[in-house]
């Protein structure tokens, strides 16, 4: 017969290491994507997809490493949500809804980033050394594909950081399972994630993009708290 305390401690350790892993791996992935000009939002907004394609042909390895780090981080997002769902049964419908947000969000994020990985790899073979006329034609394909990626990424981020983390934080605030400051960080970040999604219609809201790294901070801090609980 299994010991409930041992099982609970194991879940805390899983959630703890997963939370830290989620924040660290995904953050490193994003840094690599941005520094190597892989993340397509700016190129799509400015219509510079030909330049983006040239970059893909020149910087493919670090780009794919960055996307790979994010994919690993997404696995950890799911296991963190799974642990919180099992550890916090008193959360009722809030915890269940939060876990649904994590499940849907991580599934969509995984699809988006795996697609982005393969799509970028395929484009690099076509774009590397291609003539300007060919690049112009490929830019149309790249625009459609990466707009699809970006839409999936935005929705997934809203489900994970907005719905998932926000509702987990609200449930934990009511029960006292996590520190109040961490709960408020999750709630405020969740609200900001929904608001910053409107940046496509109100460009000034791009200033709220600092909410995205706040998601990683929430995961890392939650992981540290769960590991402390496991050792208590």
Topology:
Elements: H1 4-35, H2 41-46, H3 49-58, H4 60-87, H5 93-127, H6 132-175, H7 180-196, H8 211-231
Helix pairs in contact: 1-4, 1-8, 3-5, 3-6, 4-5, 4-6, 5-6, 6-7, 7-8
Can you give a write-up of this model?
The chain has 232 residues and is an all-alpha fold. It has one domain (4-231). 83% of the residues lie in helices and 0% in strands. The protein contains 8 helices and no strands. The protein has helices at residues 4-35, 41-46, 49-58, 60-87, 93-127, 132-175, 180-196, 211-231. The model has no long low-confidence stretch (mean pLDDT 92).
Supply Rg. Answer: 19 Å
Quaternary structure classification: single chain
Helicity, as a percent range: over 70%
* Proportion of strand residues: under 5%
Structural class: mainly alpha
Q: Treating each run of at least 4 consecutive H or I residues as one helix, how many helices? A: 8
Overall pLDDT confidence: 92
Spans of at least 5 consecutive residues whose pLDDT stays below 50 are: none
The general outline is elongated
Q: SSE string, helix = H, strand = E?
A: HHHHHHHH
Total count of strands:
0
Distance between the termini: 23 Å
Number of domains: 1
Largest sheet entry = none
């Amino acid at each position: 017969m299994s010991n409930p305390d041992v099982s609970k401690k194991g879940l805390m350790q899983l959630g703890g290491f997963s939370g830290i892993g989620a924040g660290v791996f995904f953050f490193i992935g994003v840094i690599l994507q941005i520094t190597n000009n892989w993340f397509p939002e700016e190129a799509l907004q400015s219509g510079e997809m030909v330049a983006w394609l040239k970059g893909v042909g020149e910087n493919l390895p670090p780009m794919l490493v960055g996307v790979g780090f994010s994919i690993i981080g997404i696995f950890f997002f799911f296991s963190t949500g799974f642990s919180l769902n099992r550890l916090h049964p008193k959360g009722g419908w809030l915890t269940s809804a939060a876990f649904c947000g994590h499940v849907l969000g991580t599934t969509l994020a995984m699809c988006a980033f795996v697609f982005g990985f393969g799509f970028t790899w395929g484009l690099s073979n076509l774009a590397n050394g291609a003539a300007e006329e060919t690049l112009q034609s490929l830019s149309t394909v790249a625009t459609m594909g990466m707009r699809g990626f970006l839409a999936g990424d935005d929705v997934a981020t809203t489900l994970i950081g907005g719905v998932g983390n926000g509702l987990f934080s609200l449930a934990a605030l009511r029960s006292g399972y996590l520190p109040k400051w961490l709960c408020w960080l999750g709630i405020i970040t969740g609200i900001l994630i929904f608001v910053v999604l409107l940046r496509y219609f109100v460009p000034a809201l791009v200033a709220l993009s600092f909410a995205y790294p706040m998601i990683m901070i929430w995961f890392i801090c939650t992981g540290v708290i769960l590991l402390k609980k496991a050792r208590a």
